[in-house]
Amino acid sequence: MSASSYSQAASMLLRHVRPTSNAMCRGLGCTVQSRAFGIKTTLRVQEHISKLIKKDKSKNKNKADEMQVTGPGPFHDTILESMPSELRVPRNPPPMREDTMDHTWNTSDLEALDVGPTKHRVPDLISDKIALWAVKSARKPTDIFFRNKYIHRSVMLEVVAAVPGMVGGLIRHIKSLQGMRHDGGWIGHLLHEAENERMHLMTWMEISKPVLWERALIATVQTGFFAVFSLLYMVSPRTAHRVVGYLEEEAVTSYTHFIGEIDAGRIENVKAPEIAVAYWNLDPESTLRDVVLAVRADEALHRDTNHHFSDRIRAKRESLFEDMDTDGNKPHIKY
């Protein structure tokens, strides 16, 4: 029982004892001695409760001192002992491109990647035109709000861009379970895309430190986009992937402008954060410009992938297994 609990009990007891003893004395004509007895009883109760409070405080202090000496305690030790070996092995997020870990990437390697900075999918269906209009309309307030603050713009972009892959992967996962059939090989690619976009965000958070109101704005935009995109994916996954394809086109354009601002000297070309060097296997002396080149290459891949997913749904050829490269030494397993 805590000291505050003792104090509350004492107050309640005294509020009850005093009026009760006074009322009884008035009704029975108590003597001075009986009144004195009531006062003494009250004082003894107060003294007893005071001793209990001191004893409780002393016990708590001893427990705190013991914790400082012995450490977290047996429960903490049990948690460590029961930790499965699988959880003790670090699981670093794999980069988007298969050849990323083949060698250390420098500026020349990143600039040599064919990202197609002006590549655009011309819409031919009404739904595709609506998707393009929606993305272009969403870009306008972003341009007005962030202007040339490209690092903050990148944070906003990646918070939104990390949603579609996770939503698509989740919905296709549920449909695969409900239909009790393989997914066609999409789920792994979509979740990989979502994780890649999250790593972009973790990288920009090392460089940019958004203040509270910026974090609130970002959270609001992400929540709204998550709800709208989830509904769209359930209604028309083909249109949803087309939206992502056009969103990634805008991302490639934004990062191209970002590189231009660095080259013009308007944004300081600082040293690349450690998380970026490790994730993209960059040269240890890499800079912010190299990070932007690597991120832009990922976004170009997402652009092409999502436009292709939309085309496959339209062609009713969703299964990737029909067109995958096969390894003769390994069985072709559909998952």
3D structure, described in words:
The protein has 335 residues and is mostly helical. It is 72% helix and 0% strand. It has 12 helices and no strands.
Beta-strand percentage range:
under 5%
Low-confidence stretches: none
Calculate the mean pLDDT score and round it. Answer: 82
Class by helix and strand content?
Answer: mainly alpha
Number of strands: 0
Question: What is the fold's blueprint, element by element?
Answer:
Elements: H1 3-28, H2 32-70, H3 74-81, H4 85-88, H5 107-112, H6 126-146, H7 150-179, H8 186-207, H9 212-235, H10 237-263, H11 274-280, H12 288-314
Helix pairs in contact: 1-2, 6-10, 7-8, 7-9, 7-10, 9-10, 10-12
Quick overview of this protein structure:
The protein is an all-alpha fold and 335 residues long.
Features of the shown structure:
mainly alpha, 0% strand, single chain, 335 residues
